[in-house]
Amino acid sequence: ELRNEVSFTNRFHSILTDSLSNSFDTEKFSNEVYDRLNANLSNEEWEYALVEGLKKIYPAPIVVERTGGILEKQHGTDILIKFPGLSDFQYAIAIQVKDYSGYMSGYAVKQISKADDYWKNEGLVLIDKYVIVTKCKKEQNLSVADLDNSVKVIFANELKELLLKIGMSEMGLSVETNN
């Protein structure tokens, strides 16, 4: 009986997702959200917007918080996502956000690389580190993407996919993307 229930659930969600993809222009949606956010947000405003958006993808008990500010020089983290662990520690994802366009240096990757030691001393096990760059294209910055294998860089196109996930979560829907 459980096998039938799982099979039905998978088929049901697959049909919903396929129907949504066939009738909803996800590319147009993500491009419009991206363009409008770029027109209306700058620098640290992106951090606040992404915190709100990531809360849609990661609801409680997961904590999404902006951690930039005076201590940022020590940990290089603008946004921290904390997941409950089974014992006295928590898992975390550290994110550095940059409102760059064109070519970028490796400074942001260097900044977020500080996160491991700092958050370990705060009782967190860092499971991932990201740099989100709002306007840079990956093709122009391939060398930056390979500076530190422990840091993933999300460029403009990948940010559009993330914004699509956030938008779909806002509507109570899910969609498969290339991530």
Descriptive overview:
It is a single chain. With 179 residues, this protein is α/β, with parallel strands linked by helices. Helix 3 packs across helix 8. Helices cover 49% and strands 18% of the residues. The protein is globular, with a radius of gyration of 18 Å. The chain has helices at 2-23, 26-40, 44-57, 72-75, 107-112, 115-121, 142-145, 156-170, and strands spanning 63-66, 79-84, 90-98, 124-133, 151-154. Helix 7 (142-145) links the parallel strand 4 (124-133) and strand 5 (151-154). It is built from eight helices and five strands.
> What's the arrangement of strands in the largest beta sheet?
1-2-3-4-5
Number of strands: 5
In N-to-C order, the SSE pattern is HHHEHEEHHEHEH
Helix vs. strand class: alpha/beta
The fraction of residues in strands falls at 15-25%
Look at the structure and give the mean pLDDT.
88
Shape: globular
Main beta-sheet strand count, sense and barrel state:
5 strands, mixed
CA radius of gyration is 18 Å
How many individual helices? 8
Assembly state (oligomeric):
single chain
Low-confidence segments: none
What's this, in brief?
The chain has 179 residues and is of the alpha/beta class. The chain has helices spanning 2-23, 26-40, 44-57, 72-75, 107-112, 115-121, 142-145, 156-170, and strands at residues 63-66, 79-84, 90-98, 124-133, 151-154.
